[in-house]
Design a protein that fits this description.
Blueprint: H1 3-32, H2 36-50, H3 54-65, E1 77-80, H4 82-86, H5 89-94, H6 96-101, E2 106-109, E3 113-114, E4 128-132, H7 139-151, E5 155-161, E6 164-166, H8 170-176, H9 180-183, E7 188-189, H10 193-201, E8 214-217, E9 222-225, E10 232-234, H11 240-256, E11 260-264, H12 281-297, E12 302-305, H13 311-314, E13 328-330, H14 332-344, H15 348-358, E14 365-369, H16 382-387, H17 392-404, E15 415-420, E16 425-429, H18 432-436, H19 438-444, H20 447-466, E17 470-474, H21 507-510, H22 519-535, E18 545-549, E19 556-563, E20 566-573, E21 579-592, E22 598-606, E23 611-616
Parallel strand pairs: 1-2, 1-17, 2-5, 5-11, 11-12, 12-13, 13-14, 14-17
Antiparallel strand pairs: 3-4, 6-10, 7-9, 8-9, 15-16, 18-19, 19-20, 20-23, 21-22, 21-23
């Protein structure tokens, strides 16, 4: 890079910094009480921007002019494991044409940074935040993939684990050897006095598989805070060095071309005695500072926060509209309510939850999904469950037994995860297709049940495509992949039923995706059609007004979207029988974009597990 270019970049950095300097310095000093490390961070950030490659600087400029780029109807996502999908990063790059068939514009790769050989929590135990795990590729391969994605208008999302490191990380290795500087990057204690105080108010994440929040490190002779697993040591964000280094790690990855970061376990970042050590105010300070840094160095980048809580607790992680933190959050509540509706055939809870989301500012953007790499935790609003006359615990038991397939009349095939005999709590695992009944129908050779299972699977994917935000498909669900039970033969995986839906992608099965007479073909072509319809319809943009409408039938849901004087009604029948909906169709005839049917008067009768996207007929002329 020439000196003139570097100087021009430095001046541009100064202009951006001037707009946020006072807030950034105030936040930093409020947390850390000094400015030496603050200046060091600014100096490092300046260098990251100066050395950011021209193609990324161009993308920054484009997105600065178009800040809603990720909130439009054409933003369709897929999440996948690099090794399971295509072996390594080069393999993923070679398979981008396949993803393009689904018109994917957002590719989320599950954790791929350097991790221990065995105890790595699926990549969430990181040994080096600046190095791709050699089993999956290299930094060069990641950069090439990012370049290839960008040339296709596709954003690359990567997990960024902020709460903990692997116990094989260089910091942990030095801490175990007695280096006080590196011990200070974790929360280490000579005796159990302070850990005991923490345990009095700090919930356990994995009470069965990893009880307690501290481990004893014999080599170091200290207790170490380890909220998740014993091999994942929580970082000490009271130490400004930790924040600075993690911020620089993020900027390093952004300069490789990563432009969406899934910030993992956000609520856990800050620990305070006498609290639950979750959702503390300092967490929001840290997220706001990271957001400011990203806008200084890499404005094209957005943050997706992993905050697994009910909507009223999730919303604060967006931050104030004028001082945002996360750009996007997971819509966990909708996902859980969708599966509740699949089991009960009653859309009441789902409707209430969607209305709660609709009451939030339209600037708030969610990732909507049917399945992901994780389990389904049955965190329904207990007050709502009681209002409907059900006992929350008994209803939860019904749900996890239903999706286990261990309930009369269940079509699902899944497994329990983290069953706790003391509390009778459990979560559910399985692929979307297996939980929707595809696997059972194939086993029983029941074509009628298979047809219904595929209709059900497409129905719930149609629902996430009907919501505001970014719909993300879990890799394999687009071809109705079934459960993979081979994990039981691997001692390192056998105790974790989440591997039931983490099977190797079947490219042999994917060859059937264009044959509508196959399971894979029906699912793939069905999704292709819905995605194409969504991409061409601005009413699916995130700035549309949304509300539900009464349809006089608990088995069905009507979601109304309005924008620029136009209206679309997304209608869903979750029952396996015909259902009548009384919602009026005002103003003449309406057309179903999905089937082409023309209707008037009211929505009327809907087929089993059918969805419609209705618009006034004159709009289609």
């Amino acid at each position: 890079m020439s000196e003139s270019t570097a100087a021009a970049r430095s001046r541009q950095f100064d202009r951006r910094l001037a707009a946020c300097y006072d807030e950034f310095k105030w936040l930093y000093c409020e947390l850390y009480g000094q400015t030496e490390h603050f200046q060091q961070l600014l100096d490092a950030a300046r260098q990251f921007f100066i050395h950011r490659k021209s193609a990324l600087v161009k993308l920054d400029a484009t997105r600065e002019k178009d800040p809603d780029w990720y909130r439009r109807s054409d933003m369709i996502g897929v999440m996948l494991y690099t090794d399971l999908f295509a072996g390594n990063l080069d393999g993923v790059r070679e398979k981008l044409d396949y993803l393009a068939e689904l018109q994917v514009r957002y590719l989320h790769l599950m954790p791929l940074l350097k991790m221990p050989e065995e105890f790595n929590d699926g990549g969430y135990a990181v040994s080096d935040f600046r190095q791709v795990d050699p089993r999956l590729g290299s930094n060069e391969a990641l950069e090439k993939l990012a370049d290839a994605c960008r040339s296709r208008g596709m954003s690359l999302c990567l997990d960024f684990i902020v709460n903990h490191t692997s116990d094989e990380h260089d910091w942990a290795v030095r801490a175990r050897k007695g280096d006080p500087e590196y011990q200070a990057r974790y929360q280490c204690y000579d005796n159990y006095d302070i850990p005991r105080q923490f345990e009095q108010t700090m919930p356990q994440v994995f009470p069965n598989t990893a009880p307690g929040n501290f481990i004893w490190c014999e080599e170091m002779g200290k207790y170490v805070l380890s909220t998740f697993n014993p091999y994942q040591w929580d970082m000490n964000y009271r130490n400004p060095v930790v924040f600075n280094e993690m911020a620089c790690n993020l900027l390093f990855l952004a300069n490789l071309g990563v432009d969406v970061f899934r910030i993992d376990a956000v609520p856990y970042i800050w620990k305070e005695l006498g609290t639950s050590c979750r959702n503390l105010p300092q967490v929001h300070t840290i997220m706001r500072m990271l957001r400011i840094l990203a806008k200084l160095v890499c404005p094209a980048v957005i943050f997706k926060g992993e905050v697994v809580m009910k909507p009223s607790e999730v919303a604060p992680y967006f931050g104030p509209v004028d001082k945002p933190e996360c750009d996007v959050l997971y819509n966990v509540s909708s996902m859980v309510c969708i599966w509740n509706t699949v089991a009960t055939r009653d859309a009441t809870l789902l409707r209430w939850q969607l209305d709660t989301l609709a009451a939030l500012p339209r600037e708030y953007t969610f990732v909507n999904y049917v399945r992901c790499h994780d389990d389904i935790g049955w965190g329904l609003e207990e007050e709502s469950v009681r209002y409907l006359g059900m006992d929350p615990l008994e209803h939860k038991k019904f749900l996890y037994h239903f999706f286990e397939g261990n309930y009369p009349g269940s079509f699902a095939r899944g497994e329990l995860y983290n069953y706790d005999p003391a509390t009778q709590d459990a979560r559910s695992c399985g692929t979307a297709a297996s939980l929707c009944g595809v696997q059972a129908a194939l086993e029983q050779r029941d074509n009628g049940a298979l047809d219904m299972a595929l209709r059900r699977d497409l129905l719930i994917h149609g629902l996430i495509l009907s919501q505001s935000g970014i719909p993300v498909i879990y890799s394999g669900d687009e071809i109705a992949a079934r459960n993979d039970y081979s994990y039981k033969n691997d001692p390192a995986k056998a105790g974790d039923s989440r591997f039931l839906h983490r099977g190797v992608f079947s490219w042999e099965a994917a060859q059937n995706r264009h044959n509508p007479d196959t399971v894979e073909g029906r699912m793939f072509t069905g999704l292709q059609k819905l995605i194409s319809l969504r991409r061409g319809e601005p009413l699916f943009d995130a700035d549309a007004a949304v509300h539900t409408a009464d349809c006089g039938n608990p088995h069905a849901l009507v979601l109304v979207r309005e924008k620029d004087g136009r209206c679309l009604m997304a209608v869903f029948n979750f029952s396996e029988s015909w259902q009548e909906l009384t919602t009026p169709l005002v103003g003449g005839r309406w057309v179903d974009l999905v089937s082409g049917d023309v209707m008037e008067g009211s929505i009327g009768w809907m087929q089993p597990c059918q969805m419609r996207w209705l618009v006034p007929q004159e709009e289609t002329k």
